[in-house]
Amino acid sequence: MKALQDYRRSLERSRAALEHPHRPATFRLCGREWDLLPGIFAPVYSPTSEISMRLLGLDDPRAAGRSGSLLEIGCGTGVIAVAAALAGHARVVAGDINEAAVRNTEMNAHRHSVADRVHSVHSDLFAALAPEERFDTVFWHSNYVLAPEDYRYRTMHERGYVDPGYAAHRRFLVEAPGRLAPGGSVLLHFSERGDLTALLRIAEECGRTLRVVRSGVFPEGEEEVAHMLIEVTVARGRSGGETAPGTGF
After folding, report:
1. How far apart are CA 224 and CA 34, in angstroms?
2. Of the given ranges (137-141, 207-211, 213-217, 242-246), which has the lowest mean pLDDT?
3. What domain range is 214 assigned to?
4. Residue 126: inside a domain, yes or no?
5. What are the strands, taking DSSP E only, across the chain?
6. Three-class SS state of 185
7. CB–CB of 172/125 below 8 Å?
8. Is the pLDDT at 243 greater than 90, yes or no?
9. Cα(223)–Cα(57) distance, rounded to whole angstroms?
């Protein structure tokens, strides 16, 4: 296992961010001020939320010209969802398994006057969405560090850092394409802290094709880490709900 991929390091990062003695109630990111509730993934201690913003082209406060609907999985503080609405998305749904994250996203939607366009929902991936809901874009900044299959979370906060056995990733790959409107796209933020080989294997088993649409190397403390925005599509000859082999990269 590469040092970058060691799940124990990620769990320590989670603990340190959660218990930091000077954890703020607000933070600044990409030219805007944001609220931060206790127990929520804190962009002030990790650059990955800003990296997501850059990969999606939402890091400039003047970003505009977006349209259609967007579903964000794992919204956390809501920075992606709110920035997407500010950039022009007419309907944004922001889901998170942590109820406090739902409240945090609502706070930031009100702070930036987009509460009419951002709807936050308490949901484990797609579970709480209405069966008929479809979106032009589905996005997840995933908990891409692979933990052992038998690992049990000690805090809700750890869910933002590691995924035991990539169970959540498998569900996402299977279910996300079925949530798209015609011509829509599924986007996954992944990094070399994750196990790309394992992700590719799961994609093949699920009948999904993965394609990197944007990437870059970004500083994370004293390390340089490669991050990528991956488009997930149904492999040729498969339907959205099938789980059969056939993927490429």
Report:
1. 26
2. 242-246
3. 3-234
4. yes
5. 26-29, 32-35, 69-73, 91-96, 118-122, 135-141, 145-147, 162-164, 180-191, 208-220, 223-234
6. strand
7. yes
8. no
9. 23
Torsion of CA 166, 56, 70, 112, to 10 degrees: 120
At residue 168, what are phi and psi to the nearest 5 degrees? -70, -40
Give the position of tokens 């309907």. Answer: 91
Count of structural domains, the chain: 1
The encoded tokens of residue 145 equal 């560090």
Spatial distance between the Cα atoms of 58 and 85, rounded to a whole number of angstroms: 10
Query: Which residue reads 């945090």 in tokens?
Result: 104
3-class SS at 213? strand
pLDDT of residue 240: 58
The mean per-residue pLDDT over the stretch 32-37 comes to 98
For residue 132, the domain's CATH number is: 3.40.50.150
Provide the token pair at 44: 């002030």
Q: Tell me, yes or no, if the pTM score tops 0.85.
A: yes
How far apart (Å, rounded) are the C-alpha atoms in residues 11 and 78? 22
186, part of any domain: yes
Identify the CA nearest to 203 among candidates 176, 164, 224: 176
- Residue 148 buriedness (CB in 10 A; 0-12 / 13-18 / 19+): exposed
**189 with 227: CB under 8 angstroms?**
yes
At 236 the pLDDT is: 85
The secondary structure element, H or E, covering residue 18 is helix 7-19
Q: Looking at the domain assignment, is residue 249 inside a domain? A: no
| 12 located within any domain | yes
Q: Where are the alpha helices (DSSP H) in 29-180?
A: 48-56, 79-86, 99-111, 167-175
